[in-house]
Design a protein that fits this description.
By secondary structure, the chain is of the alpha/beta class. It folds into three domains: 16-42 and 60-196, Rossmann fold; 226-450, ANL, N-terminal domain (Rossmann fold); 455-565, ANL, C-terminal domain (GMP Synthetase, Chain A, domain 3), CATH 3.30.300. Helix content is 31%, strand content 25%. A hairpin with a 2-residue loop joins strand 18 and strand 19 (401-407). Helix 2 crosses helix 4, helix 10 (280-289) crosses helix 11 and helix 10 (280-289) packs across helix 12. The chain is globular.
């Protein structure tokens, strides 16, 4: 068997595929819009698809497809016949990838798709026990490991073998890449039926900021169409190169910074993996080398990059400074999402980029893009995440304000093996309940926060924590902030702020914080609790979301703490 059997849920009994042999082979890719698109791009020129400086090479589109086929064929040979039978019937088979973003990951991603299986990216930062649990939850039959994670993959294979009768195995990606490239005409798209567009494509585990991580399953058609929508919105083309630094096991790592650029004929350059300790200086130097047109990050990254600019770059001699300013201005688009962007930070970047703003967005693992700011944004109101993406149906629970409910053609299909959670995630009309709060002004939307952690009910007032965080972040002595509600018998809840000070500030009192905020916030929104914390104490997910639910109880426990100012 040299490729998944094409399937369709509705096929006439006299369809030609009922009478002819299966069209499969070592150089035959499955019939799907995604592979057809990439093969057409491979025919057009020897353009570079992936740059991977860590691995030390760049790969063209034809090199990518050559390596995808080679790894796909090896994966098929490695799987038990019973598993291949399941694939041939179009049934769900899950294969995990263990490793950082890069060329090897990209080859593995498409190779799993080419065998007809479902891709499940795993973060190498997880513990061995957490990895075992993820593998068990998705019933993975194998894991493909990047060269840097081969030892971890073998350890995982042995660990699972001890506690299970599973035939789960670890397969190294490294030996199957950089093969002698085929000629474009040597690669064929199967004439069999298309892969089921409603079939599962990949699974992303949610960040777990407000509960246990869930396995979000995305359909093939939704993945392809969502990528094209991103490409259309940002007018991507063959001359575009995106610098990819976000974790590849998150939705935006695949659906925003990888697939849209590859399906547009552009180039994806993998660089430093995003983490709390990523090297801002190194990233600025890469920007200064040039050759980039897009960058995608989260507020935490943009904040750290701006802090580095102000501390280490802004005071350089004019000629040197000019090079760094040009580096920030080379990008046609700088994309920002995942969590709220402080307005002062937006203003700093807009000023540095000659009036061009960071392009905010809003979406979710389950929903793909919901609101967007266009590439050449001119009249988008301050703080807005833009307008509705074409084709998406949005309603707010209380008219022009409230929880965001959506229906989208690019929605997830289900939570993995959890039909109850899937059903409960929707209202009685079939809208997905995002758990996020927003307000609408005309055609523009503004995110107010999470319904379960970003609302404070105090003295009869409904307070949105992001409103307070935005103003606190506007103070020049504050680097990071988290605002939460602390239970209080008299008021219901009190406003509590945990603050990380900038490097040149040594102390802050609650009285001074309230004094500085009083001209811009009403009294009932002013913090009544303050705790100063060190850098790194406001723990975040890999995508920069503050773990509010866990931190609220830790930093502001019911019995109080000597570090809390009242």
């Amino acid at each position: 068997m040299s490729g998944p059997e094409s399937i369709s849920t509705m096929v006439d009994g006299d369809d030609r595929t009922c009478f002819v042999p299966k069209h499969q082979g070592l150089n035959v890719l499955p019939n799907s819009p995604l592979f057809s698109r990439i093969l057409r791009l491979a025919h057009q020129s020897e353009r570079i698809a992936i740059k991977d400086p860590t691995a030390g090479f760049a790969a063209s589109y034809i090199q990518l497809l050559t390596d995808v086929l080679h790894l796909r064929n090896h994966l098929e040979k490695s799987l038990d016949y019973s598993i291949l039978e399941h694939l041939g019937k179009g049934e769900e088979v899950f294969v995990t990838i263990l490793g950082e973003g890069g060329y090897e990951f990209t080859v593995a991603f498409f190779a799993i798709m080419a065998v007809g299986a479902v891709v499940v990216p795993l973060s190498p930062s997880l513990s061995l026990e957490e990895l075992r649990n993820r593998v068990k939850r998705c019933r993975s039959v194998a894991t493909l490991t990047t060269s840097t994670r081969t030892a971890l993959g073998r350890e995982l294979e042995e660990y699972i073998a001890i506690s299970s009768t599973s035939t789960f195995r670890c397969i190294d990606i490294g030996p199957h890449i950089n093969r002698p490239p085929l000629l474009p005409r040597e690669i064929i798209i199967s004439s069999d039926l298309q892969l089921d567009s409603n079939g599962s494509s990949f699974v992303i585990f949610t960040s777990g900021t407000t509960g246990q991580p869930k396995g979000v399953v995305k359909r093939r058609a939704a993945v392809y169409n969502a990528a094209l929508a991103v490409a259309d919105n940002y007018q991507l083309g063959e001359n575009d190169t995106v610098l990819h630094i976000t974790p590849i096991n998150h939705a935006s790592g695949i659906g925003l910074a990888l697939l849209p650029f590859l399906l547009s004929g552009g180039c994806v350059e993998f660089q430093i993996e995003c983490s709390e300790a990523f090297d801002a200086g190194r990233l600025w130097e890469r920007w200064r080398e040039g050759g980039l047109t897009f960058f995608s990050g989260v507020p935490n990254i943009y904040n750290t990059m701006m802090e580095y600019f102000e501390k280490h770059i802004s005071s350089l001699p004019a000629e040197q400074l000019k090079g760094y300013i040009a580096a920030a201005n080379q990008f046609r688009g700088m994309l920002c999402g995942t969590s709220a962007l402080a307005q002062q930070l937006q203003q700093k970047w807009t000023e540095l980029r000659g009036g061009r703003m960071l392009l905010t967005r809003y979406g979710g693992t389950e929903s793909s893009a919901v609101f967007k700011v266009p590439l050449h944004a001119a009249d988008v109101p301050e703080g807005s995440v833009g307008e509705i993406v074409p084709g998406v149906d949005v309603k707010l629970s209380d008219g022009d304000k409230g929880e965001v409910f959506i229906k989208s053609p690019n929605m997830f299909s289900k939570y993995l093996f959890d039909p109850e959670a899937t059903a409960n995630a929707h209202d009685k009309y079939g809208y997905f309940k995002t758990g996020d709060l927003a307000r609408r002004e005309g055609k523009y939307y503004f995110i107010l926060g999470r319904a379960d952690v970003d609302i404070i009910k105090s003295g009869g007032h409904i307070i949105y924590t992001l409103d307070i965080e935005k103003e606190i972040l506007g103070l020049d002595y504050v680097s990071e902030v988290m605002v939460v509600g602390v239970e209080n018998g008299e008021l219901g809840q009190r406003v509590a702020a945990a603050v990380v000070l900038t490097g040149n500030t040594t102390s802050l009192t609650l009285a001074n914080l309230r004094k500085d905020l009083s001209p811009i916030l009403p009294d009932y929104k002013l913090p009544t609790y303050l705790r100063i914390v060190g850098k790194g104490e406001l723990r975040k997910t890999a995508m920069g979301k503050v773990l509010k639910k866990a931190l609220a109880g830790e930093l502001f426990p019911p019995h109080g703490h000597s570090d809390i100012q009242i």
